[in-house]
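Retry 2 of 3 after timeout on previous attempt. Resubmitting structure tokens to design endpoint.
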């Protein structure tokens, strides 16, 4: 008799992900509330994608990919999640994004009244954090799409945004965040990505769209976004030669001190801090998407040497460039 083969944690994760997408909770397998007309198109597309879920390839791992589903829940006794009780001793932190498409459920932060999640309502659930979401008595059912992300860098960025703007959003069917989130849900079923780098680019797009939305929410006139985009463009136009704040200020017809005050009053950051952040972020992208050495990346983004690059990266990302690159090998 052959000994039973023990599945690796990654293989087990892929199998469990497939089991989730093949369960009786998938919305296309269960009768649930009727979606509003404006959301019906999205429901139809997810229904088609969910009929034949595909198990991920060998590189489809928690850190290099994500998981998701399209569900209908009708039993209040079987659907309740507490954000402080979901992790085991060896589980990694993660974040869920969930968008309601029909019916309704509740999301609440500890100590606050529940917020009803109707079609177009969405929330980010950072695990662990003090929240819970559940199907309450009296609901006709709850149909929603969700994704779960382990990617540590994206998780940290989302957690920071949630801390500043809150976990609950209101989205339209044509919102860019709706489009990119539901594309990821379909991708979880179809696994149509060429490799883990294409998956990562899709996750970064999701993060970027969310960041733009939070900035629009905090600055409806979009002056802040326009100013940040302009300064970012100045940095990207001269990657190997860090710009002095005075040079950037002169391009706006301002003195260094006037521009610094103007920039900080509208963005909450100093221009020098933001310009360094852009360089660190772009260097971080190259760490993930290329095999270039630390020395080459440091030079490409205007750092004096690898030591200077390492100190700046540690300050902004709370880990060294080498550890950051290795952290995505799981």
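Retry 2 succeeded. Sequence:
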């Amino acid at each position: 008799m052959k000994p039973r083969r023990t599945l690796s944690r990654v293989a087990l994760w892929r199998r469990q992900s497939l089991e989730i997408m093949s369960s009786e909770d998938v919305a296309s397998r269960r009768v649930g509330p009727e979606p509003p007309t404006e959301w019906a198109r999205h429901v139809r597309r997810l229904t088609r994608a969910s009929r034949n879920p595909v198990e991920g390839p060998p590189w489809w791992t928690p850190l290099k990919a994500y998981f998701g589903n399209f569900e209908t829940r009708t039993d209040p006794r079987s659907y309740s999640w507490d954000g402080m009780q979901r992790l085991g001793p060896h589980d990694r932190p993660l974040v869920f994004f969930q968008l309601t498409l029909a019916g309704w459920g509740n999301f609440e932060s500890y100590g606050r009244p529940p917020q009803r999640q109707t079609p177009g309502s969405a929330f980010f659930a950072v695990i662990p954090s003090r929240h819970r979401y559940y199907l309450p008595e009296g609901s006709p059912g709850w149909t929603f799409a969700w994704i779960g992300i382990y990617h540590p860098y994206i998780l940290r960025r989302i957690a920071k945004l949630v801390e500043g703007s809150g976990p609950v959003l209101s989205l339209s069917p044509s919102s860019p965040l709706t489009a990119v989130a539901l594309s990821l849900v379909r991708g979880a079923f179809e696994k149509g990505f060429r490799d883990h780098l294409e998956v990562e680019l899709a996750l970064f797009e999701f993060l970027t769209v969310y960041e733009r939305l939070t900035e629009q929410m905090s600055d409806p006139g979009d002056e802040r976004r326009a100013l940040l985009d302009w300064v970012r463009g100045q940095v990207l136009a001269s990657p190997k030669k860090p710009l002095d704040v005075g040079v950037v200020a002169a391009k706006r017809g301002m003195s260094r001190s006037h521009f610094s005050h103007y920039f900080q009053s509208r963005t909450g950051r100093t221009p020098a801090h933001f310009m360094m952040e852009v360089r660190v972020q772009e260097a971080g992208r190259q760490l993930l998407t290329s095999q270039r050495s630390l020395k080459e990346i440091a030079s490409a983004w205007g750092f004096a040497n690898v030591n200077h690059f390492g100190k700046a990266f540690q300050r902004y990302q709370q880990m060294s460039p080498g550890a950051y690159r290795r952290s995505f090998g799981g």
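Attempt log closed. The longest strand covers residues 94-103.
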